[in-house]
Design brief:
The complex is a heterodimer of chains A (about 350) and B (about 325). With about 350 residues, chain A is mainly alpha-helical. The longest helix of chain A has about 40 residues. An 8-stranded mixed β-sheet of chain B has the order 6-7-8-3-9-10-12-11, with helices on both faces. The longest helix of chain B is centred in the middle third of the chain and has 18 residues. In chain B, strand 1 and strand 2 form a beta hairpin. Classes of the chains: A mainly alpha (about 350), B alpha/beta (about 325). The interface between A and B is medium-sized, with 20 and 30 residues.
Chain lengths: ~350, ~325
């Protein structure tokens, strides 16, 4: 397994230039965008002193009021970033962006994981059934994939709210947990935290709250997974080793295990590719269900023109997606012994 | 040597498409005796592989066995349920294929694949199964420390050895080898064939060797069965058929073997090409390519008649 370790280290090092490019892009795009952030924040009629003060705060001018060149601003930003400093928010308590992100991140992670699990469960089950049975069932799965992928998250979210919250009153319309039921923080994920602290009420409440958002997000992404699973299982079922396995007298369920493991490679690739969609999907889902995560947070700060926070959050998202892709690559190499770069 | 292990009686395996029916195996009868190597030879599309897959009832989807019997140990395989068939496959009938790389699960270690085969059929613990796997690998000449290798880590010859180890680990009565050496170079091919012969001698396994290579079959098998367009045209002992082929197709096949002792380097192909199986010729299926074709051949289909120690289906011999 040492070759696997070397592979992981090599891939981790290769991550640095990727993230650097991402940061550079975000930094310059934010500055190329039309509109003066200072005016946007303080308003057209703000006194000159206030404008100068804010410009200093933003690192646009130095102590003597001279403009700092863009490239110097960029280097300064990078130096801070390496130390884990994304700057401070421009509004309210002017708290460090990193702290604000960390407050909202667990909610998004919890939703993303739950949505991802739902989508994998639905997608892989339907895909395997479609490819395994074939014929009309297969066509039905094909249609499902297209329809699910085309669903608009806020619409399907509101439909679910209408049926299950307003109509049947089974699940809450929004929020993350019932009032006063927040469990003590260990991981920040309410489901896990309530289990660790043994609070059954909190556990049930958080589970009820996450069901509809997770199903909404999961349904939409499941279209991609049902398609890729169906195609992949179909492909693997045609391979010689399946006939060879039958010729050795293996029962069908064991053959399916071989087939699934082999078809998992394209599914895993798709998982990596869908992470970005999962993040944007989470943003839409969060706003539909007033889920207090990164999506709601980002949207709110865009409205307040909190530039440093928006920039920091986007960079943070970019880093998360790259790291997740690295994890996917490592899983890839772990499952398929033929892959070592 | 004279105990009949497997009897194939009037087997008909057809492939059904929307428009036509392809009679890949058409009324074929064949006995396989215990401990013999039967060489089944024919061109691509002659139905030889379909015959092999019919024996274990593993035909690809549009294929169906529409008639006949396959008797193993006095019982008709074709009447067995899936569950009963699974007990036969791998346990009583082993099978190896042309390309061992695509026939092994690329994501599982070869040892694990052998162990899986054992534990599916026998109620023994993993430790014992692993011992058996190691023994079977050693028997085919793979060192025990390769047991945890993945298929892609082995050479082509080793992979085929691993396949043989997997197919013979439970001591089957019959081994169906479908083009086992076609993907390998000549030297490896001859070693693999040596190994198969050794296994036959040690364990009295019967081997159905399916190949397009008539020279290989003459050299390595006891009896040669020649198939053409879904039918058997000649069955004869390997030594007899080499010197005295009867059916015109067999004659042409044997003439097509290049002779390294002669100086002439021109190959002698059989004129024409195999028939379109969607619409095979009337009468004898070989007549359009046959140098001895008569009027009778175009109308009446010759029957496989016993002649001497073998059988031949040709009007020249009264069929």
């Amino acid at each position: 397994m040492t070759s696997l370790k070397v592979f992981i280290i090599a891939r981790a090092i290769a991550l640095i230039p990727t993230i650097l490019i991402l940061v550079t892009l975000v930094f310059f795009i934010m500055r190329v965008l039309p509109g003066d952030p200072v005016i946007a924040i303080v308003g057209m009629k703000a006194p000159m002193e206030r404008v100068v003060e804010l410009k200093k705060e933003l690192g646009l001018i130095d102590e003597n009021g001279n403009e700092i060149p863009l490239i110097v601003q960029y280097v300064n930003y990078l130096m801070k970033l390496v130390q884990g400093d994304l700057g401070r928010s421009l509004i309210w308590g002017k708290r460090p962006v990193v702290v604000e992100i960390m407050e909202h991140l667990p909610a998004t992670i919890e939703l993303a994981i739950a949505g991802f699990l739902v989508s994998l469960l639905i997608g892989m089950t339907l895909g395997t059934i479609g490819a395994g049975i074939g014929g009309k069932v297969n066509s039905a799965v094909r249609v499902y994939s297209a329809v699910a992928y085309a669903l608009f998250i806020p619409w399907i979210g509101m439909m679910l709210q209408l049926v299950f919250s307003v109509g049947l009153k089974i699940f809450p319309v929004g929020g993350r947990i019932g009032v006063g039921l927040e469990p003590p923080t260990y991981t920040g994920l309410y489901i896990l935290d309530s289990l660790i602290s043994g609070k059954i009420d909190s556990f049930i409440s958080s589970l009820k709250h996450i069901t509809l958002p997770a199903v909404t997000l999961g349904l939409v992404i499941s279209g991609v997974f049902s398609r890729v699973t169906r195609v992949s299982v179909e492909e693997i079922l045609k391979q010689d080793f399946v006939v060879a396995a039958r010729a050795r007298g293996l029962p069908e369920y064991r053959i399916m295990l071989h087939v699934l493991k082999n078809s998992f490679i394209p599914i895993l690739t798709m998982m990596g590719l869908q992470l970005a969609l999962l993040m944007t999907g989470a943003v839409l889902t969060e706003t539909t269900f007033s889920w207090p995560g990164m999506g709601t947070f980002l949207l709110e700060r865009i409205q307040y023109r909190d530039y440093t926070t928006v920039q920091g959050t986007v960079i943070f998202f970019a880093i998360i997606v790259s790291v997740m892709n690295l994890i996917v690559d490592v899983c890839y190499a772990y499952i398929d012994p033929r892959i070592r770069y | 040597m004279f105990e009949k292990l497997l009897r194939i009686i009037n087997l008909k395996t057809y492939y059904f498409s929307r428009k036509n029916v392809i009679k890949a195996v058409d009324n074929v009868s064949l006995d396989i005796f215990r401990g013999e190597i039967v060489g089944l030879v024919g061109e691509s599309g002659s139905g030889k592989s379909t015959l092999g897959l019919s024996i274990v009832k593993l035909l690809p989807p549009p294929g169906k066995i529409v008639g006949g019997e396959i008797i193993l140990d006095g019982e008709n395989i074709l009447k067995k349920t899936d569950r009963e068939l699974r007990k036969i496959r791998g346990r009583k009938i082993g099978m190896i294929f042309q390309d061992p790389l695509t026939c092994l699960d690329p994501l599982r270690r070869i040892g694990d694949q052998i162990i899986e085969t054992i534990t599916v059929h026998l109620k023994i613990d993993k430790e014992h199964a692993r011992e058996m796997a190691i023994k079977s690998l050693e028997r085919v000449g793979i060192p025990p420390d390769r047991i945890d290798d993945y298929p892609h880590q082995l050479s082509g010859g080793m992979r085929q050895r691993a396949m043989i180890a997997m197919a013979t680990v439970l001591n089957p009565d019959l081994l169906i080898a479908d083009e086992p050496t076609t993907a390998l170079d000549v030297i490896v091919q001859s070693r693999i064939m040596d190994l198969l012969e050794d296994l036959r001698n040690e364990r009295n396994i019967s081997i159905l060797l399916i190949t397009h290579d008539i020279a290989l079959v003459i050299e390595r098998s006891n009896r040669v069965v020649v198939m053409y367009a879904g039918k058997i045209c000649e069955v004869r002992g390997a030594e007899r058929i080499a010197v005295e082929p009867l059916h015109p197709y067999t004659k042409l096949l044997i003439q097509s073997i290049p002779d390294i002792e002669k100086t002439e380097i021109e190959l002698k192909p059989i004129p024409g090409s195999p028939p379109d199986m969607r619409n095979p010729p009337q009468g004898c299926r070989f007549w359009p390519r046959c140098p001895h074709a008569m009027e009778k051949c175009k109308i009446e289909e010759p029957q496989l008649l016993s002649l001497g120690e073998g059988a031949v289906a040709c009007h020249l011999y009264g069929g």
